[in-house]
Structures are given as C-alpha cells and as structure tokens.
Amino acid sequence: MYQTLLTDLQDGTFIITINRPDKLNALNKDVIEELGQAINEVYNNEAIKTVILTGAGEKGFVAGADISEFTALDAAGGAALAKKGQDHVFDKIENCPKPVIAAVNGFALGGGCELAMSCHFRVAAENAKFGQPEVNLGLIPGYGGTQRLTQLIGKGKAMELMMTADMIGAEEAKSLGLVNHVFPLQDLMAETKKIAQKIQTKAPIAISQIIASINEAAKGETNGFANEIKRFGLCFSTSDMKEGTTAFLEKRKASFVGK
Ligand code: COA
C-alpha cells in the first residue's frame, strides 16, 4: 500500500518502518506524504492502540531530510517544505491521542532527530546517534528541532548541539533525557513492543488526556493546570474510570475498553 513505508499491526501495536535503507531512510517528499497518511490511519483505525516508529536496516533511523531535494528551493520553497512537514507529520504525531514511541535504530540526524522528538518518547539501540547538523548545510532545523530539543534537553545543550553539529551517542542521549532506554540493537523492537503492550493495558481515554496535558506543559501553555482539572473531570465520565476504580476495590485486574 505504501511505497516508502512498511506497516504492520501486531496485537494492537502499529509498527511504521521508514523504508529507504539505501538512503539511510532520508525524508523525501514521498516519505513525508506517506507518513502523514500512516498517521491518519492511526487516528482513524480503532484496532490501532499504540504506535512504534522506526527505520529499516541496521544503520539508520532517519539521517535527515533528503538533502537532494533542497537544491532547487528558494526562501518560500524552504518555508513551504518545513510547514508541510510540520503540519502533515510532526505536529500530527505529537498531538496523536494514541501513544507513538520512536525506536531509534541508528542515525537520527536533522529531520530524523526531529521525527524522533515529535514522538511521545524515545528508546534507542546502542548504535543510535543523534544530532542536528543542519548548520553544516547553512541551515537550521525546520521540523520543530529548535523547539523540541530545547524542551527535552534544555537551552544550553540544545544551543551547543545545533551550533557545533556534533553527534551524540545513545548513552549520552539517555543521560540528557532525550531517550528513555538504551537496548542492544537486536533487542530494540522486542523491548519497545513490551513497553507498548504495557501501555495498552491502561485506559485509552486517560492516556489520550495525559498526552494532551503533558504536551501543554512542554509548550508552556498557560492554562495547563486549569486544563488538567477539566481533563481529570472528563475521565470521571468514562466507563473505564468506573471499571478501574471498581476493579481496584474488588481486588481484580481492570479490563479497559476505551469508553
Ligand atoms: N539526504 C539524502 N541522502 C542521504 C542523507 C540525507 N540526509 N543521508 C544519507 N544519505 C545517502 C547518502 O547520500 C548515501 O547515498 P549514495 O549511496 O547514493 O551516495 C547513502 O545515504 C548512505 O550514506 P553515506 O553518507 O554513504 O553513509 P555514511 O555511513 O558514510 O555516513 C552519515 C552516514 C549519516 C554520517 C551521512 O550520510 C550524513 O552525514 N548524512 C547527512 C546527515 C545530515 O546532514 N542530515 C541533516 C539533513 S537536514
């Protein structure tokens, strides 16, 4: 169905694999278009409960936007490219009501690092490398990197990484809070699936409200506390809340249906 992606639904977990390994899964127009379609599928398909985003091959998650598409662009064309990607893919992933986890299996540079950062959290293989090397090309990040890297690792470190174009390894990324876990490459998908499966045992509406509230905190939304109160209240109107509290009091495991 997709030309540049592989998709697979396994036990409610939708695995999206960017599949241009000969170009280290660089994000060209087709990949951006199809990633947007795949994320729409996530929003619309009730069978999808959680998502894992990864790259094909053992070397690259995504080595950035496809640099070969940059040469013909002027100022308006560059801005349009960034806007299309942000609107069509990156913001949709960030605001997705279902958890999206990046399984970073190699280079996550430029748009690749930005793609991983648009996911709700990241796990990495030991060989993963992160960086925002756009300055080497006379550019800055355009898919939200200046905003999300600053949110995730703080201003000083984000400044240094973008100014130097340095790459950092998985353990350093973990120590900075950019990734949550580091696994051997051969275990990466199995371990990420375990996390996704654990999340799938929880109440989906509560999960979607957690995503919305934490996103507001990360963006410095001034009504975050008030909105949390509203969302807390909203959860009381769900049958999953009744099931969760009743199951606790009856000393049994809750079974959630997403209603
Ligand atoms: N855009 C387009 N093509 C890319 C790419 C990108 N961002 N990143 C890698 N590729 C291509 C290479 O051109 C090469 O294609 P070819 O075999 O047809 O020549 C192929 O992917 C393999 O990459 P290569 O550079 O040969 O691998 P390497 O192991 O020597 O180096 C990197 C790996 C990631 C260090 C190097 O590819 C690189 O610096 N890529 C660009 C990173 C970047 O600046 N990203 C930000 C873009 S805004």
The average pLDDT is: 97
Give the CA-based shape.
globular
Let me know the largest β-sheet.
6 strands, mixed
User: So what's the CATH class of the largest domain?
Assistant: Alpha Beta
> Total number of helical segments?
10
Q: Helix/strand-derived class?
A: alpha/beta
Total number of β-strand segments? 10
CATH superfamily of the largest domain: 2-enoyl-CoA Hydratase, Chain A, domain 1
Q: Which oligomeric state applies?
A: single chain
Name the ligand types: coenzyme A
Domain tally: 2
End-to-end C-alpha gap = 31 Å
Share of helical residues: 40-55%
Report on the structure:
The strands form 2 sheets. The protein has a 6-stranded mixed β-sheet, with helices on both faces. Strands 4-6-8-9 form a 4-stranded mixed β-sheet. The model has no long low-confidence stretch (mean pLDDT 97). α3 packs across α4, α4 packs across α5 and α8 runs antiparallel to α9. β1 and β2 form a beta hairpin. It is of the alpha/beta class. The protein has 10 helices and 10 strands. The protein has helices spanning 29-44, 75-94, 111-118, 145-153, 155-164, 170-176, 188-200, 204-218, 224-235, 239-249, and strands at 5-10, 13-18, 50-55, 60-62, 100-104, 107-109, 121-125, 129-131, 168-169, 181-183. It is 47% helix and 16% strand. It has 2 domains: 5-200, 2-enoyl-CoA Hydratase, Chain A, domain 1, CATH 3.90.226; 204-249.
